[in-house]
Design a protein that fits this description.
13% helix, Methylamine Dehydrogenase, Chain H, four-stranded antiparallel beta sheet, 4 helices, binds calcium ion, globular, Type 1 dockerin domain, mainly beta
């Protein structure tokens, strides 16, 4: 092995660095998009696990969020509802409060102000926090016709919030336009008997989903729309199959949206899709077998997931033409997308959809580009930046050197995968 003085070695390293940097920066100008990684679903390892079910999740930004976890009490005769908060994207969780309620729905206007709805105790319908969930107070001034449970919450802006319920009747909506100081209630009978979820796009316009039928097991699915703040409603979908209950509503963007259907029949299971902003909804086949679908979430037009009381979560990668087992998630009741690359879901526990940082993707954006090379050069020669060996030591020899940069250059510009041979 040739001897190289420390000074000579440093000089070689600097020359290598300069050459790499020049190459990286000049090629960065050529707008190479890199080749992409895909986000993946995984179970968050430190999240609470429910003995009943987690019914809802809400994140105000990628890091700060809350989940509701319902657990059986000591003799399994009732539920206790836990409100958990995370401030680091689900890496760690703090229990905020345990209520003697089954907690169904959660929504926040900002990092401090939020609401949690219950479903089996009409006297304790809705809880409110103004300190980020440290303390919760029962909302006591909701006028008749009050819902008997809150199955869905849609926070429109920092002052307007709607809520709907319940799945087993009656069909009622409440709203506040002053951040929860005052409330208005609407009875949607006879357009619906049961309401679950709601989604509002503006202070006046939005959708609620549920069904017509005195018994929610035997009803017909309904999607209703208001454009005057809840005073009047129009039916936008009238299901013709009995034993169906429209359960959750999700919009991918302002034009494309989806509604899951809890199917109590012995026949095929459908879901609804709109491509005209909710003006019309089409029945789309999910499975040829019964499934009580609850959670529904699409990341893009082609990529989506559904879960529910059947247990398993299913995935489509072809815009719903076919569905297969997704390999994650149990009894999922809610998906919340923050972007097409970041989402949370809850069922038995908490699941997260995100780009998993892989060796060489130093900026964690899911692509291998010249930007990653620049960051690696900084790690190798300046020891600056985030330089964890698990994603910088590309030849897996336990340290950082110009060889790792060369490997990454090959990854970025030749699409040669990381081989990890020292
Ligand atoms: Ca990258
Ligand atoms: Ca190395």
């Amino acid at each position: 092995m040739p001897k190289v003085s420390k000074l000579g070695r440093a000089s070689l390293m600097i020359r290598a660095a300069k050459a790499s940097l020049f190459m990286a920066l000049s090629l960065a100008m050529s707008a190479d998009p890199g080749f992409p990684q895909s986000p993946q679903w995984r179970t968050l390892p430190n999240a609470p696990v429910s003995t009943g079910r987690m019914d809802d999740v809400f994140f105000i930004n990628p890091s700060l969020g809350w989940v509701l976890s319902n657990n059986y009490n000591s003799d399994s005769t009732a539920f206790l509802g836990d409100i958990w908060k995370t401030m680091d994207g689900g890496a760690t969780w703090a229990l905020q409060i345990t209520l003697n309620q089954y907690l169904r729905s959660v929504g926040f206007a900002d990092s401090l102000t939020g609401w949690v709805g219950t479903v089996f105790d009409p006297d304790s319908l809705l809880y409110h926090t103004t300190d980020g969930g440290t303390t919760w107070a029962l909302v006591q001034n909701i006028p008749e016709p009050r819902p008997l449970g809150i199955c869905g919450i849609s926070v429109v802006n920092d002052s307007v919030m709607y809520a709907s319920g319940r799945y087993s009747g009656p069909a009622r909506v409440i709203k506040t336009t002053d951040r929860g100081a005052n409330w208005t209630s609407f009875d949607l009978y006879p357009l619906a008997d049961n309401l679950v979820d709601c989604r509002f796009f503006s202070p006046d316009s939005g959708f609620v989903v549920g069904s017509i039928g005195a018994d929610y097991h035997t009803g017909y699915g309904r999607v209703l729309f208001t454009s005057d703040g809840g005073s009047t409603w129009a039916t936008r979908y009238a299901g013709t199959r009995s034993e169906e209950l429209c359960w959750k509503i999700q919009f991918l963007n302002r034009t494309t949206g989806y509604v899951s259907i809890e199917n109590f029949s012995l026949g095929p299971t459908y879901y609804l899709k709109t491509t005209d902003g909710g003006g019309t909804w089409s029945d789309e086949l999910f499975l040829n077998t019964p499934y009580e679908v609850q959670g529904i979430g699409f990341a893009t037009d082609s990529l989506g997931w559904m879960g529910g009381w059947g247990g398993d979560t299913f995935e489509t990668t072809d815009a719903g033409a076919s569905w297969h087992l997704a390999g994650f998630g149990y009894i999922v009741n809610r998906f919340r997308f923050l972007s097409d690359k970041l989402a949370y879901a809850v069922g038995e526990t908490v699941y997260k959809y995100e780009l998993i940082r892989v060796p060489g993707d130093l900026n964690g954006d899911g692509n291998f580009t010249a930007a990653d090379i620049v960051l690696l050069i900084n790690c190798v020669f300046q020891q600056t930046g985030e330089c964890d060996l698990s994603f910088t030591d590309l030849n897996c020899n336990g340290g950082l050197s110009a060889a790792d940069i060369v490997t990454l250059i090959n990854v970025v510009f030749q699409e040669i995968p990381v081989t990890c041979t020292p």
